[in-house]
Amino acid sequence: MKEAAVSEDEVRILASELDPHFKYEVAEEPGGENIKVCFSCGVCTAGCPVSEIDPGYNPRKIVRMVLLGMREQVLASDFIWLCTLCYTCYARCPQNVRFTDVMGALRNMAVREGHVHPSFLKAVDGIAEFTQRLRHDMLVKALAKRKKKTEFRISDYKKVVNESLAGRA
Amino acid sequence: MEKENGQKVGAVLVVGGGIAGVQASLDLAESGYYVYLVEKSAGIGGTMAQLDKTFPTNDCSMCILSPKLVECGRHLNIEVMTCAELAEMQGSAGDFRVKVRKRARYVDSDKCTGCGECAEVCPVEMPNLFEEGLGTRKAIFRAFAQTYPSCFAIEKKQRPACEAACPAGVNPQGYVALIGEKKYAEALALIRENNPFPAVCGRVCHHPCEADCRRNEVDDPVAIAALKRFVADWERDHADECEPPSPFEITRPEKVAIVGSGPSGLTAAYHLGKLGYEATVFEALPVAGGMLRVGIPEYRLPRDVLDAEIDWLERLGIQIRLNTPIGDGFSLEDLKSSGFSAVYVAVGAHTGLKLGVAGEDLPGVLDGVAFLREVNLGRKVRLGRKVAVIGGGNVAIDSARTARRLGSDVTILYRRSRAEMPAREEEIVAAEHEGIAIEYLTAPTGFKAKRSKVAGVECTRMKLGKPDASGRRRPVPVEGSEFVFDTDTVIAAIGQSPETSFLGNGESIGVTRRGTIEVDAETGMAGRGGVFAGGDAVSGPATVVEAIAAGKRAAHSIDRYLRGESCGVATAATVADPLEERHIPYTTERKPRQSMPELLAEPRVKSFDEVELGFDEQAALAEADRCLSCGVCSECKQCETACKAEAIVHSMHDETVELNVGAIVLAPGFDEFVPNEKYEYGYGRFPNVVTSIQFERILSASGPYSGHVVKPSDGQAPDKIAFIQCVGSRDTNCGNSYCSSVCCTYAIKEAIIAKEHLSTVKPTIFFMERRTYGKDFDKYAERAQSEYGVEFISSGVSDVAEDPDTHDLSVRYTGEDGSPKSMRFDMVVLSVGLQAPQSAEQLANDLGIRLNKDRFALTRPFSPLETSRDAVYVCGAFSGPKDIPQTVADASGAAGGASALLASARHSLTRVKEYPPETDVSADEPRVGVFVCHCGINIGGVVNVPEVKEFASTLDGVVFADENLYTCSQDTQERMKELIREHNLNRIVVASCSPRTHEPLFRETVREAGLNPYLFEMTNIRDQCSWVHREEPEKATEKAKALVRMAVAKARLLEPLYPRSLELTHEALVIGGGLSGMVAALALADQGFPVRLIEKERELGGNTRRLHYSLNGGDPQRFLNSLLDKVLTNDLITIQTETTLVDFSGFVGNFEAGLMTAGKTYVETIKVGAVIVAVGAQEYRPDEYLYGADPRVVTALELEEKLTNNDGGLNGSKNVVMIQCVGSREPDYMYCSRNCCAQAVKNALKLKEANSEINVYVLYRDMRTYGFLEEYYRKARDKGVIFIKYDSDEKPSVETVTNNGSRQLRVTVDDRILGAKLLIDADVVALSTGVRPAVGNREIAQLLKVPLNEEGFFLEAHMKLRPVDFATEGVFVCGLAHAPKSLEESIAQAKAAAGRAATILAKDTVLGEGIVSNIDADSCSTCRMCVGVCPYGAISYDYNKKIVEVNDALCKGCGTCVAACPTGAMTARHFTDAQIYAQIEAALK
Known about the structure:
Chain A is mostly helical. Chain A has 10 helices and 1 strand, in the order H-E-H-H-H-H-H-H-H-H-H. The model of chain A is unreliable at 1-8 (pLDDT under 50). Helix content of chain B is 28%, strand content 22%. Chain B is built from 41 helices and 68 strands. In chain B, strand 6 and strand 7 form a beta hairpin. Chain B is globular and about 140 Å long. Chains A and B meet through strand 1, helix 3 and helix 5 of A and strand 35, strand 36, helix 36, strand 57 and strand 60 of B.
C-alpha cells in the first residue's frame, strides 16, 4: 500500500493478499514482543512529536498495518525511519506495547530485508567511522600513559582498528 | 452463650458499612439473624454517600441511601460497630470467634446528640476526605450529616513533637491552633494548665518545642515561644476584657511550704493550689521570682511582666513571705512543726562556680550570677572600661550584655567554638549585634594583677579534640599559644551551684558531689519523708521550663504523698496509638517564619528596655497559620467546653471485643485510584484537574461548592469540561489491567448533571470504548448525546497541559483522521478506576481467604458470592469492580447464603422488643404534652426556646410543656416517659428536627410509655426556623410558635392506629426453570422453605444448555448437571414442567397462584408467600448478514455448539469473522446484550487454541469486556485475534462473491484507523446476536401486576437499591428476565432474589402499615377512580358485594386515592381532612 493511496476515499485492502504471519514475526523480534496487545486507543499518536509535524507518521496506524499483515507497506516505508526515539509513547501506552522498541524491531527487519534507504546507510557508516576513530584515539592516548605497566602493544590495536575501518569503507 | 458442639451460631459478622454491608445486614436481620456490622470509619454510608446522583435514573444518591442507613442504624438486631476493624478469626463454618478492634472515637456515642457544637469551636482544620480534599473539616468531625451514628469522632494521631519536647508538658499545637482562631483567652488557659508563666516563658524559654517542630522539614519551625508571649501580652493589654483569676478552692486540710520563689517553687505552689492545697512560699530575698528576678536581665524580661505574672499567682491565693530565709533561725524542722505537712525545697543555684585558677580572688574579678543579682536588685556595681566575660552559657551572655549596657567595652572568652556554645542562638546573635566581641577557643589560665587589682586574663588558645561526656568536642590547649588579654574587670560565668548550707546538720538531707541536693529520682523526695526538692537546686543550673516542669512534678508527688499513695513520678499523659507516620504533603506551601521585631542595636545598649518587641496580631495569626497540626486533634479541649451533653472523653482507649458468629459477609468495598502516578494528566499539579469523585462532590448540593459547577482555581463557572476515561483502569502501567466497569456510565452521568446544573457548560468525554453495558445505560448514553449535547471523542488522551496564568488546560488526543489534536478546556475530570481496598491483604490474612492477582477477593466460577473459605461470603466491589445494583444484589445474595448456612440457628439470637400494654385513651379528652428542643444551640441559639415553650403551654389542650437541651438524648427519652405517666399525657408533640431521622425514635418512646405510637406529632423547628432564618431570630421564633400551634392542633385530633398483622404461607413460587430459577429455588430450599418451581418447557436448564465452555475455566454443563441433580433430589422443591402461571391474586405472604400444566384440564391453585420471576430470555434470530441464506453464517451460540461438537467444517477454516452488536444497540432495541463481547472473545480464544494459525477478525462497536473480562480481551489480542472497530452508521457488509468458481463469503468493513475498506474472505461468519425478552413476559407481568420496561424486560422496583424487588411486595425478579447478564451475574441475582424472599418467609406474620387509606362505603359511589390510581394495587372492586375495598396489607398510605376520590369517601388515616384543616386553621391564626 502506498501512502498516497491511503488518503484517497475508496481504498480497498484484500485481506487474502496480506501476510497474517507478519505480526508474529515482529513479535519474535527483540522489541516487538508486545505489539499484538495494542487496543488502538491512540495515546501514542496523540503525544507523538513526529506525528504533530508529519501526519504521515502515525504509530497507531503502523501497529494496525503490522497486525493486518501489511509487510511490504511497513518495511519498505519511509515512515519507520522517522521515529525520534523520544519514548513518549512508550511511557504513556496503557497496554505497555513499547512502541519505541517496536520501531527498533521494524527497522532491524527492514535492514535485513534490504529496505534501507542508501542515504541512511551512508550516515550510519559515517557515524560508525567517526566513533571508531574517536575510540581509537582515546585508547591510544590512555594506553600511552600506562605504557610501562602493560604488555599490550599499541601497534596491534592500531592494526585491528585500521582493518576494521578498511573493511567498512 | 451456651451452645452444644457443632451447633451453629445465629449471628453474622458483616465487614464494611457501605451500601453492600448495609443491605446484607438488613436482609440478615430481617431473616432472623443477629448482625454485627463492623465499619472502619466513624460512620456507615461508604462511597455511595459521596455520590451526587446515580445513573441511569439520576436519583439523588443520598436521598435513596439515607433511609437505609437510618433503618440499619435503628434495627434492633443490627449492632453497628464503627471505628472498628476485624483483628483475628478462629473457629470453623457456623461457629467463628472473631476479635474486633475498636479504635477510640473520644466521643461517647450514648451521650453525643450530633448537634455539632464541638466542630464549631474546634480550631484544627484538616482536609475533608469526604469532600475528597476539596474542603476542610475539623479534627472533631462527622463524615456527613446523614451518617449513622450521628455521633462525632475525634481524629487523633500520636502527640505532636512540640508537646513531646516540652519538659512541662505544655500543648503548643493546642494553643497555636486557638491563637489562629483568635481565641486568646482560651489559648492562655490551655498554657496555664501546665505552665503558670506564659509571659516569662514566651520571652526566655529555650523552646525545645521549636527544635522538634516538624515545620523544620518544610522551612522554619513555628515561632511557638513568641506566640505564647503574644497571648500573654494580649491578656495584659486587655485586662479589662479578661476574667480575673478565681482563687483556688482549698479542699485539702494539709498545708505545704515551699522554699524559694523561683519558677520551680511558684509552679509547685500553683499546681498544689489547683489540687486544693494551701501553699506558702518562703523567699530569702526581698523580692520574689528567684532567678527570673535576679538572674535574667531586664532587657530580656521586664520587671513589670514578671510582677504581673507573680501578682496573678498571688491573686490565686499563693502566699509569698519575702525576706524569710530558711536556715539557722528557722529550719526545715521548724517549718514542719509549725503545721506544714510537706516542704518543697526549690532554692535554685545562685552561687557561682570558681574557675580554680590563680588570681581568682583579685578585686575586679566578679562572679556572673552575683553580678547580675546586684544589678537586678538595683544596686550600684562598678565596672571597668574593658570587661572580659568568661564562659559561653546564658549567664555569660546576660553578664556581657548587661555590662555593655553599663557602658563597658565587653569581650567574651569562650574555650570552645561557637557551635558548642550552650547559650541560646538568639542571645548570641543579639550580643554580636550589640557590639560584644567573642573570642572563641580561648581558655583562661590565670589572672594578671596590676596594683593588686586585675589587669588581664592569661589565656591559652584551644583546639577541639575528641568529644567528651556531653557529646561536645573537648577543647585541648594549643602549645605555645599563651597570651594575655588586657582588661579592667573580669566576670566569670562558668556555672552555678545551689546554696545548701541552710540544710544544716539535723536535716539528714544529702548533697551530691556537684553540690546539688540529693533526691530520690522517682519521687523527688529528699531524705526523710515530707521534704521534696527540685529545680536548679537539684539539677544544677538548667532552664526556666525545666524548673517549671520540676515544680509541676513536685506538686503531684506531694499530692500523692499526702494522700498516702505511692509518690512515684506521674506518668506521661496517655497517648493515642502510634499510628502511621504522617507524611507532610509535598504540596505544603512554604511560608516564612514571622521575624521578631527588635529595638535597634545602637539605642538599645544604652538602656535596659526590652529588646524583643513581640508579635502584633497580624504576625501572630500568620505565624499560627504555619502550624501543621501534626497531632490532628490538638487537645485544646474546646470541644469539652462546648459540649453541653458532656460527651467528649479525651481519655478514651482502644478496645478489642470478641464476638461469636456463624458466618461472615465481606463488603469492604474498594479504593478509588489516586491518579498521582498518571503524572501526564496533571492531577495534584493543576488545580482544575479533578478526579471523578471530586467532581461528584462538586456537583453535590451538600458539597464544597454547594452544587455550583465551578473551577477550583478561581470559583468561576467552567465553559468546557473534559472527562478522561480509563484513568487507573485497563492500564498495565499502573498495575490495574482490568476494566473498572462503572466509569463510562458515571462519567456520562456527571456530564449530564453538570449540564443540568450549568446549562452553558460543554462536556466532552474522551473514551476508548464506551462500556454502557448495564440495563438502560445505552439509552442513557444516547440521551446524553442527543438531549444534553455531550460530545464523545473516541481516543485515549496523551497528556494534559496547563497555561499557568489562566489555569486553562489543553488535552491532547488522536483525532478522527488519525492525527494528533489538542483541545482547550477549563476543567478536566479524570474518571478514576476502582481498586481493591487497602485492607485487602490484612483481611485475607486474618480470614484465610485468597485474593486474585489484582488483590480482589477470589471467587470460583459459578460461585460469585463465596470466598475461598467456607462461610465467608463476599459482596460488592470487593470481588471485582461493579455498580450499585449489582452490589446490592450481591449483598442480598450473600446474606441469603449465610442465612441458608445458619438456617438451623435462625431466630436463636435475635431480640424481640417487649412493650408495656397500651393504654386506651379513646374516651379521654386530649391532654397534649409539648417538648421543645434546644438542640444545644443549634435551635436554641436562634429560636427563643423558652418563649416557644411558654407559648405552647397556653395552647388549647396542652397540659404540659417542657424544653430540653437535647430531646433525642437517652436521658431525655427516659424523662419523657416519666412525664407522660406523671401528667397523664395522651398526645405528644415534639418540636425539634427532622421527622425523617427522629420520628421513629419518638414514636418508640411514646409506645414505651404505654401510648399508641401514632398519638405523636412532630414539627421541625430546626431546618425550618433556626437554619433558614439564622439572621432573624425574632421571626424564627414566631415561625416556630406557628409550627407548634399547627402541630398541637393536629395532635388533639390524632387517633390510635393499628397496623394489621397477618399470618403467611412459608412457601415460594419460582417461575422459570432455567439457571436463575433453579439457583433461586435451591437457595430457598436450603433456607428451609418449600418451593414450587414451574417451567413452561419440557426440560429444566434454559439457555445454559447451550453453553459449553467459559472464559474463567468453569464448565457450564457440569455446573448445570450438578445443579439439576440438587434441584431434582431436594425434598422441598416441587418441580412442574410444561406449566405456566395463569392466575394470580392476593398480597405479600398470602398469594394465590393458578398453575396450568400441559395435558391437564384444570387449573391448580396454590398458596405461596413469595414469588420469584426467573423466566429468562431468548437469543435474537437475525435476518441480516445473510443469516439463514448462507449456512456459513451462524450465531455466536451456534458457533459455540460447532466448536464443541467439532463439526461444521471449522477444521479446514482459515478465516473466521465475528460481527458484534447484531440486533443490539439498534433504534428499537437500544440496549447492550452484555454477553456478546465476552462470547466472541471466548469463541475466538477457543478457535486460536485449536489452531493458532487461524485468522480471527472481530468487528465491534465497543468491546465491552468489563471487569476482569478485560484480561481475556487482552489475551485474545495477544493470541493474534484482530479487532476492528466499526461505526453503527457504517456497518460491515456480508456478501457472497464468486472466486475461482466457488461461492466465497466476503465481509467488508471500514477500518477507520487505516482509512480503508478491508475485504475479508471468510470461511465462517459468526453473528454476536443480542438477547431478547422472553415471549410470555407481558402476560406474566399483567398477572403479577408488575411492570416491564420499554423492550419487555421486567422492571424492578428501583434500579439502584431494589434491583431484584418489584414495587409489588413479595414478588421478585432475577436472571435474564430482568436484563441481559452473565452466568455469574444471574447466579448472584438469583441468590439475591431468594435472599430477599426469605426475609418475608422467615417471619411469623406480615405487619402492614398503620397509616393506610380507609373507605367510607356509604359515601362511595363505586366510581373506582381509586382502583386505577393506586400504585400498589391495594384497592379492588368486589363485583359480588359491589363495593370498593382497601387491602391494608398492600396499602402504603401514599394518599393518591384520597386525592382522586370525587366524593370524599376515601380518607388517609393520620392525615384526615379534619386533622389537616385543623393545621391549616392553626397556621392562619
